[in-house]
Specification:
The protein has 257 residues and is mainly alpha-helical. The chain contains five helices and four strands; from the N terminus they run αββαααββα. Among the domains are: 73 residues, SRF-like; 69 residues. This is Truncated transcription factor CAULIFLOWER A-like.
């Protein structure tokens, strides 16, 4: 005889209920995976146990993207519903969905920080690791890009500062050269002015050798005077200016005469 139809009602035995939940959960996850592979469908499965433990499955796209698509579709459907009591009921139904999504996001954040990893399966851990690796690659790529841009900016500033330094060095050299030329020009002008205004040095003539007798002045006039003395002899006397002929010459002239 085959198995009879199982009556769908709550299993009262706690152990049997837990065993049945584990088996059915595994089968449900397997069926969700099969339909996603066979039919190329995006599947998101969320299961909470009686203890509040979460079990979920999603296709290659993340759970968040599927839930966002679901919310967009639900929002568009709500826009088509006329206002009234039905609209209020839809909002009351939407609140638990939003709370569940917030709880999922908070749990994902905790998983990204390495918390509450025990409930995750091997596939979920691999998917989480892949997401973290992708995020790390993006972060490192952005960091390297910023470092590269910063280095290029620093090289650019260094080049500008080097050019300014070269310009200032050239200006300093030109100023020093002009100051040196100006000092040399002033020194030359000062030397020329001092040589032009200085009177020539004239050496005084050497004095003639000293003579014991006053010099004889050529061309001086003298007078010869003749007279007779008491003996009847004629005497000749030469008279010269007193300061023009020395006495020895006068005696010589007198003797000659």
């Amino acid at each position: 005889m085959g198995r009879g139809r199982v009556q769908l009602k709550r299993i009262e035995n706690k152990i049997n209920r837990q065993v049945t939940f584990s088996k059915r959960r595994t089968g449900l996850l397997k069926k969700a995976h099969e339909i996603s592979v066979l039919c190329d469908a995006d599947v998101a499965l969320i299961v909470f146990s009686t203890r509040g433990k979460l079990f979920e499955y999603s296709t290659d796209s993340s759970m968040e993207s599927i839930l966002e698509r679901y919310e967009r579709c639900s929002y568009l459907e709500q826009q088509l519903v006329p206002n009234g009591s039905e609209h209020q009921e839809s909002w009351s139904l939407e609140h638990p969905k939003l709370m569940a999504r917030v709880e999922i996001l908070q749990r994902n954040l905790r998983n990204y920080t390495g918390q509450e990893l025990d409930p995750l399966s091997l596939k979920e851990l691999q998917y989480l690791e892949q997401q973290i690796d992708t995020a790390l690659k993006r972060i490192r790529s952005r960091k390297n890009q910023l470092i590269h841009e910063s280095l290029n900016e620093l090289r650019k500033k260094e080049k500008e500062l080097q050019e300014q330094n070269n310009i200032l060095a050239e200006q300093v050299k030109e100023n020093e050269k002009s100051l040196t030329e100006q000092a040399q020009w002033e020194q030359r002008n000062l030397g020329q002015n001092s040589s032009s205004f200085m009177p020539p040095v004239v050496q005084p003539p050497l004095p003639p050798p000293m003579s014991p007798h006053p010099p004889l002045t050529i061309g001086d006039s003298f007078q010869i005077i003749g007279f007779l003395n008491g003996n009847g002899n004629e005497n000749v006397e030469v008279q010269t200016p007193p300061s023009t002929m020395p006495s020895w010459m006068l005696r010589h002239v007198n003797d000659t005469i």
